[in-house]
């Protein structure tokens, strides 16, 4: 029976505190509602207007917050190109099916059923997502149960035998000092100007006082596929075809491209990656194990490995060495082949086609590479090694600058302006409410 009187007493005390606080606040609204000399009808009308103002203020602040989240970044173009130093593109070469070596080693291993062995070794050594010869019964028991990573390395050419000569702007360079091994989905390739290789590289910088700012010329002893990409990128199965070219032994290729650099203002790094919709190279997520620098291609490579592990409980044998304990056996390669429609391509948003769903943000610093021309000549009658050239056709005359259009401070200022406009309040008003409710010593006098 004593609970209700105490509850009533506390309720009345809270009401008096609330009324006293409203009557003494400096913000517009509460003090008017707490006045005794205002008629009740006027208070109701004023309260309805006050509620509408609150709704409008909250909607405005929410709209501005959404605008801040979606349009934080803006892009501008710069043309003050006289002082620019542009890094040459990273060129990665990956050996493709070495038929001669397969025949040579294959004759030593299997003379009876060489045609099937030839196709099987091609699928293993130069795996690119499918191994259709693995779907049949294995006729080569020792190799089918062996380490596929080691088998693939037997049929791949080391750097010292792969490159015959290399030139940068007409000057000879040491191929294997400049082209470092790079782990990719195609196995170990050789890449120049790449940040994800082991050790250090001296970057090739385009020269502004030459007619052709940068020209890389290479001559190889094997067939290969060349990729043009940013220094943070790695070749992957879904890379655009205009930035790759297949060159067989004896043919000659010339690829001409231009570069448009992307630079970022210092404030951009203070914005969360999800808000600015890109990542810097040092913002590598924890789940990416094989590469130290982030790029879109690095993220896609990790996403595909995760999908392979999820669907087949293993990953293909040409994956980076960090996954050597999860490499597929013969049955695992069958699983990867059967699921290639999902694992081999990226799902296009809004379609029902199978494919990988990878929430990968682009790189904040990746330049825009525009391939102007690709010329490929057929091998001559008398087969011989011929050089291929990768030419930066002209120096950049434009740069794209990523700027912060709205900072967190801008958001705070906009919210403060809205609060001040609608209610005449500020941060001191919030402190005032806390003071009256929590710290003021209360003494109430009954009305006479």
From TrEMBL:
Family: Belongs to the amiloride-sensitive sodium channel (TC 1.A.6) family.
Gene3D superfamilies hit by this protein: Acid-sensing ion channels like domains, YojJ-like
Gene Ontology cellular-component annotations: plasma membrane
Name of the protein described by the UniProt record: Sodium channel protein Nach-like
InterPro entries: ENaC
Domain of life per record: Eukaryota
Compartment annotation: Membrane
Keywords: Ion channel, Ion transport, Membrane, Sodium, Sodium channel, Sodium transport, Transmembrane, Transmembrane helix, Transport
Transmembrane parts of this sequence: 44-65, 411-438
Membrane topology: Multi-pass membrane protein
GO molecular function annotation: ligand-gated sodium channel activity
Main location per the UniProt record: membrane
């Amino acid at each position: 029976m004593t609970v209700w009187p105490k509850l009533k007493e506390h309720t009345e005390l809270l009401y008096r505190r609330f009324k006293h606080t409203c009557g003494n606040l400096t913000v517009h609204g509460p003090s008017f509602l707490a006045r005794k000399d205002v008629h009740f009808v006027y208070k109701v009308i004023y309260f309805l207007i006050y509620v509408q103002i609150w709704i409008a203020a909250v909607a405005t602040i929410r709209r501005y917050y959404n605008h801040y989240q979606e349009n934080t970044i803006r892009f501008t173009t710069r043309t003050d190109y006289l002082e620019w130093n542009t890094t040459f593109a990273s060129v990665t070469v990956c050996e493709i099916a070495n038929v001669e070596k397969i025949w040579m080693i294959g004759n030593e291993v299997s003379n009876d059923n060489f045609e099937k062995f030839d196709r099987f070794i091609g699928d293993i050594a130069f795996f690119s997502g499918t191994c259709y010869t693995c779907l049949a019964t294995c006729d080569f028991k020792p190799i089918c149960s062996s380490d596929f990573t080691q088998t693939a390395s037997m049929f791949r050419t080391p750097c010292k035998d792969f490159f015959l000569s290399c030139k940068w702007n007409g000057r000879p360079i040491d191929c294997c000092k400049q082209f470092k091994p790079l782990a990719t989905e195609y196995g170990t390739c050789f890449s120049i100007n790449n940040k994800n290789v082991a050790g250090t590289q001296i970057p090739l910088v385009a020269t502004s006082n030459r007619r052709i700012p940068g020209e890389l010329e290479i001559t190889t002893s094997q067939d290969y596929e060349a990729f043009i990409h940013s220094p943070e990128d790695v070749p992957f199965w879904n890379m655009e075809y205009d930035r790759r070219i297949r060159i067989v032994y004896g043919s000659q290729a010339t690829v001409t491209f231009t570069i448009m650099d992307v630079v970022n203002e210092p404030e951009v790094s203070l914005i969360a990656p999800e808000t600015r919709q890109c990542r810097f190279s040092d913002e590598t997520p924890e789940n990416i194990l094989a590469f130290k620098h982030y790029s879109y291609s690095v993220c896609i490579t990790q996403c595909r490995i995760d999908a392979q592990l999820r669907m087949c409980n293993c990953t293909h044998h040409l994956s980076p060495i960090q996954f050597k304990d999860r490499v597929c056996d013969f049955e695992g390669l069958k699983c990867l082949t059967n699921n290639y429609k999902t694992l081999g391509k990226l799902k296009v948003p809004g379609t029902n086609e199978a494919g990988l769903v990878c929430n990968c943000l682009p790189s904040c610093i990746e330049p825009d590479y525009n391939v102007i021309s690709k010329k490929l000549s057929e091998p001559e009658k008398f087969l011989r090694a011929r050089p291929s050239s990768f030419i930066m056709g002209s120096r950049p005359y434009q740069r794209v600058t990523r700027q912060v259009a709205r900072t967190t401070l801008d958001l705070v200022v906009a919210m403060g302006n809205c609060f001040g406009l609608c209610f005449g309040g500020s941060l001191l008003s919030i402190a005032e409410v806390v003071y009256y409710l929590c710290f003021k010593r209360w003494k109430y006098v009954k009305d006479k």
